[in-house]
Amino acid sequence: MTRSESRVQVQGLHHVTIVGSTRQSAIDFWEGVLGMPFVFEQPNLGNPAENHLYFDPGDGRLLTVFTDEGRTDAGRDAPREPGTVEHLAFTVSRATFQLAPARLRARGIEVLERDRGFMDSIYFRDPNGMKVELACYKFQTPEGWRDADVLRRAYELRVARGDANITAEHLADAIEDLLRR
After folding, report:
1. 112 and 123 in contact (C-beta within 8 Å)?
2. Domains by residue range for the chain, with CATH
3. For a Cys staple, 62 with which of 15, 35, 69, 98, CB 3.0–4.6 Å?
4. pLDDT per residue over 1-47, tens digit each?
5. CA-to-CA distance for 63 and 53, rounded, in angstroms?
6. Where is the VOC domain positioned along the sequence (predicted)?
7. Which residues are within 8 A (CB) of 131 and not within 5 positions of it... i.e. 6 or more apart?
8. Which residues of 127-162 are buried (b: 16+ CB within 10 A; e: fewer)?
9. 136 forms bridges with which residues in the sheet?
């Protein structure tokens, strides 16, 4: 392989930018509903007609929103087609996860709860119809390992056993295997 054929190695997610409606709508949802502190704003340097708001989703990275005071909340489900984002998922603690459905419903936000085998999920929509997920793993990652290490080993065990999806047994066995290493 020549140098020009080498891949570009990423080291993590830097930020996600979404298209929102107004500044206040973005602040009300991302900070007001989801508790993401508003960090700063500036003009969208690629489109001066838009504003660019920055929020902290909790891990020090950023979620940014392009806003325009001439837009209104879409109030419909966002398109789901090739080239679009299906949803954004955010990590929450087990305690927050347990309280979230009632707190969202109290704000008039419809929620859908799902058991994903290795995690629990709550889905709902932002004011522009984009699907948002709150996710909570069903395991505690051992010291010195990453969540992805546990999930990769649980996946390997699931495949080897011919099971349809990752279960608590795969997770427990994966953690035991990792701790033996």
Report:
1. yes
2. 14-72 (3.10.180.10), 74-78+85-138 (3.10.180.10), 147-180 (no CATH)
3. 15
4. 666 688 999 999 999 999 999 999 999 999 999 999 999 999 999 99
5. 8
6. 12-137
7. 77, 78, 86, 87, 88, 123, 124, 125
8. bbebbbbbbbbbbeeeeeeeeebbbebbeebbeeee
9. 120
Token readout for 114 is 């799902």
